[in-house]
Amino acid sequence: MPELPEVEVTRLSFAGRIAGARIQAVHLGKPLRWPLNCAPQSLVGRQVRGVRRRGKYLLLDLDPGLLLIHLGMSGSLTFAPQLPAPGVHDHFELRTTQGVLCLHDPRRFGAVVYAPDEQDATARKLLGKLGMEPLGAGFDAALFHAGLARRRAPIKQVLLAGDVVVGVGNIYASEALFLAGIRPTTQACKLSRPRAARLHQAIREVLARAVEQGGSTLRDFSNAHGEAGHFQAQAMVYGRQGQACKVCGTPIRAIRQGQRSTYFCSHCQKP
DNA sequence: AAAAGCCCCTGGATGC
DNA sequence: TGCATCCAGGGGCTTT
Question: Fewer CB within 10 Å of terminal CB in chain A, N or C?
Answer without folding.
Answer: C
